[in-house]
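Onboarding guide, step 5: your first structure request.
Type a short instruction followed by the sequence, for example:

Predict the 3D structure of this protein.
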Amino acid sequence: MNTQAAPIAPAPQAPGFWRRAIRHRSFAIGGLLTLALLLAAAVSLVWTPWSPYNVNMAARLQPPSASHWFGTDAYGRDVASLLLVGARASIMVGVIAVGIGLTVGAALGLLASARRGWVEEAIMRLTDFSLAFPAILSAIMLTAVFGAGIVNAIIAIGIYNIPTFARITRASANAIWSREYVAAARACGKGPLAITLQHVLPNISALLIVQITIRFAIAILAEAALSYLGLGTQPPQPSWGRMLSEAQTMMFQAPLLSVFPGLAIALAVLGLNLMGDGLRDLLDPRLARAR
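The system replies with structure tokens like these:
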């Protein structure tokens, strides 16, 4: 009689992050669109088909051709070159504005969660007050005082992002502070700062990463809206929003002038939102085990 025990099959392991990411349709499509945005901005640093600042009235309002892929605008500038350089402006505004919101907002949220009491109440009421001033209204106020410009647009969008990051960080951190391992860390003599840096922040970082992609998309949209109103990027620096503003007077003469920048904004925002939704699924341990 064979008494040898049958070998135990190893437990199936969850596939790696990148393997799951490739199979995740939203993340894959969003990642490709976001990569295209980054590549367009990177290429514009070293090459554009034509100079985006070169005005040539003799070549104005030309249709798409082999020489001008997307045609020319009312000043004879190459639309493809304007779109490439405009991507660079959108990314710069998004990175700096979201960086401001993340740095200040996450710090306030972590402080409110660690201290509780009147500190938490004061910070939350301050964020509620900040929500009364959206990016466009803040930009209008800054413009009235300091004048229109991309710096004021970045500051306005950054201030708009602070309360969102603060509220999300505080809510997520409060859930971590109630966990058993945090109670054990406090019993071992660790202070609020050490617990925040070693336990709270690493456990909410995935949620913050997802929020960064979503707020990045909103920042690009806000920059385009401010430039459309003349409060954001100023001439001669190309901007997708100002391209839309200039194209609205040419809707019947050259309708494609409004199609290309509008499509660029839509694809950039769509890509970042899809990537954010995909990251939310991939970084959630429960959803990761289900896939």
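Each response can be followed by summary notes, for example: Residues 1-14 have pLDDT under 50 and may be disordered.
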